[in-house]
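Obj.: predict assembly geometry.
Materials: sequence records (below).
Method: joint structure prediction, all chains together.
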Amino acid sequence: MKNFSSLVIFLIASMSLQTAAADECAVTIEAGDALSYSMSAIELPSSCATISVTFNHTGNLPAAAMGHNWVLAKTADLQAIQNDGNAAGAAGGYLKAGDARVIAATDIIGGGESTSVSFATAGLSAAEDYSFFCTVMSHSVVMKGVFTLNG
Ligand code: CO
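Observations (raw structure tokens):
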């Protein structure tokens, strides 16, 4: 029985080395009626095949006044994505349609609303610098954070 328990523990440990558990690959982030997120950095295991981001707007202002989105891209692409987002304007959701530089993006939400996005990590690298940011009305100037895959 003791050997059996050890085997089970070994098997569970082996499995966890191969694939991170789903809850390790999910993150919840918030923003309110200010130009900031609830966290300045998101770090997740590189073993996550898929990452899920839940984004809650805890403020009171409607999307038209203080909308936010959560966009992920290489840090090097942030400014160009924002520039094209400004050109797209509110009607275009502050993102260029079909922008291939965008790795993931949520809808724009207002106070009291929640949204989420899931994306595959295939093609992402632990060595790359990624940022998450809000493209609404150039919020990304200050509303941004660092995204890192560990390992
Ligand atoms: Co914003």
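Conclusions so far: The radius of gyration is 18 Å.
To do: check interface contacts against the pulldown list.
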